[in-house]
Amino acid sequence: MSGRLGFVPVRAGDDLVGGAEMLVAELADGLAARGHAVDILTSTAADHFTGLDRFPAGVTERPSGARLLRFPAVASRARADRVLGNRRLAVSGTLDPEAAARWCHDDVRVPGLVDHLAAHAGEYRALVFAPYLYWATLAGTLVDPARTIVLPCLHDEPTATLPLIDRMFAESRGVWFLTDPEAAFARRRFTDLTEHAVIGSAVAPPGPVDPDRFRARHGIDGPFVLMLGRREAGKGTPAAIDAFVTAAERSGTAVRLVAAGPGEVRLDARARAHVVDVGVLTPAERDDALAAATALLQPSPHESFSRVMMEAWQVGTPVIATADCTVSAWHVERSGGGRTYADVDDLADALRSATTPAFAALGSAGAGYVAREYSWPVVLDRVEASLDAWLPADAPGPGPVAPSGRRRVVVGPFVPEVSAADAPVVEAVLAATRERWAAGDAVTVVSPTPSLAPGWADPATRRGVRRIRRLAAGADGVVTVGPVPPRLARLLDRLPTVERIAAAAPEQTIDRPGRSGRLRRNLARWRAGLPTFVRSFRRP
């Protein structure tokens, strides 16, 4: 088995904001510094919505010696399925299987990355995917589960309930969790959870800090609580600002809130009396701000680790964290490095005590906690121990696969199954695809149902058959799994190389929306305020 390690985040860049992305890069660099051969395989995208080609595709080398391989990112222009799915999740907390598949497919996709994994998975000792709910993770973990490790950054949120994600938590070789509460939630959520370990996370110590420099730059004097990170509803920012303003008024203290990070903050006249918006900070300014703060406010209800809390404790700053986040509350209780609040009255009480010597001393307890539990030597030791247990470097393995030079088109419903009747055929399609990957073939999957394949086409329509004909023209053969509609069958009869696999449930017919299905989908879009239109297939 090769000793090379592959880390697969959906995006990477030293100037990008995102705890999971930063963690993956630092893990890769740390293991490279310990002598491991490491690749970071990612996209050209800077974020989920814009900047899909922010970084050039190709191979570069990081200062640590880790290789960085970037593949082009693609996304639909309308993003209608993504918007509709987000709205349904916000209202009902769940999505039906087809809507979940469409929602995930409408995320940033990186087809070339999955092709690279299919061709080169055998060159890696382990492939580590993070975080859990991106197309690149869900599609990439299908390629070689036996050498796959998932670093999910999981927390209790509506997307964690989607059956779409169950397969990777059951089939992967292992899962790395960042905290005990995250692992406990996963054990409750996934009844067939694969082997797993809690590795934690680590944050490099900051460089020299100058609190006065931050205060002078932004004209801030007196005590203040700092709120860092993306300013968005999912991170609890609008609610936190409202709660802080009310708490400040009730407490009668002069402690202000300084909000820093990307995203818009809307402050009315009442809020401007208590809140200062300093926008996006450079890394050096961020460290200065943490050192200058009386406390860090962590209002996010959804955290799998909370990197910013560790950064605050490293410079001796106490933390005030929402009790709604199990992980943040767990850190506070274990460390003794701050306090939690459950409502506005709790927050007001915390602000009254924030300027006392006893509260300031809590920061030292937090610093000791980080050094003891989350220094890089400690975390990397845990990572190497789990790798040795799950995927020993000297264990025999299949190794790299020589490219065959053949190109295959596989036609059939791909993961996930959008109905129970689909399940046997979906498993057969996945098995057929993996078999051809293992033979060194380049494979294009064309699914007639919404799936994690880069695109899908309805083989019951003229447009779908034309799509399959174009793909077949440049391929060495077509493989069909399960039943095919007459229109596609007529095309297959004219092709020279066709392999037909009769999967289980042969009486099943390929699902296609039909007129009533299109009307229902358009009605749902119309109710959600989205444009109504019909798409019989998606291009990769």
CATH class division of the largest domain: Alpha Beta
**Could you name the ranges where pLDDT drops below 50 across 5 or more consecutive residues?**
505-540
> Count of DSSP helices?
21
**CATH H-level homologous superfamily name of the largest domain:** Glycogen Phosphorylase B
Strand content: 15-25%
Shape: elongated
Looking at the structure, the CATH topology of the largest domain is Rossmann fold
Structural class by SSE content: alpha/beta
What does this structure look like?
With 540 residues, the protein is α/β, with parallel strands linked by helices. The protein has three domains: 4-73 and 108-202 and 377-390, 3-Layer(aba) Sandwich (Rossmann fold); 211-372, Glycogen Phosphorylase B (Rossmann fold, 3-Layer(aba) Sandwich), CATH 3.40.50; 407-538. It has 21 helices and 20 strands. The strands form four sheets. It has an eight-stranded mixed beta sheet with strand order 3-4-2-1-5-6-7-8, with helices on both faces. α20 links the parallel β18 and β19. α9 crosses α14 (344-353) and α12 (307-314) crosses α16. The radius of gyration is 25 Å and the shape is elongated. The two termini are 33 Å apart. The model is unreliable at 505-540 (pLDDT under 50).
